[in-house]
Amino acid sequence: MKKDKHYLTGQCLVSMPNIQDDRFDKALVYICSHTKHGAMGFVVNKKIKEFSFNDLATQLPIILAQPLVPIDLHQGGPLDKVRGFVLHSADYQKDDTILIDDNIAVSSSIDVLTDIAFGLGPHDNLIALGYASWAPEQLEEEIKNNTWLVVPATPELVFRTKDEEKWQKALETIGIDVCRLSDCAGRA
Q: What pTM, to 2 d.p., does this model score?
């Protein structure tokens, strides 16, 4: 997929300390789509603590012979929190899979959840309930106002880094020391 250098599809956003929305405090957001029509992504570092994959499986037609090894669910964002998405490695593709780039894809069918439950799913995966989205020009304006920093997305950062370390690791990839961040924004 050819990327337009003006859009952020396949990149990550790191929330800055001055963000005005608690739902995005120390958030790392993977951007799945960014065009002139707006943007959509998933928060990839905030686990859901009160609801498990086993709980989800019992609500869906996934018949489990035994309880699964714990699989984390993530708060993908504040919108449509009952809708599930699976951000995953590109080694797994079904009819509904959308390739974001050569390494990362997204699927939303029950097939991917069933395959994950039975160990047949993608090598790397992150299950998100809900998503984040921005209207046309909204994300660009938020970046100009120092609400977000843009960092390269890698499978290592998105899938293999511990959730509680992702925000700091993302900042480190662009040479920013968390201890030197201020919650006051400005422009030089």
A: 0.88
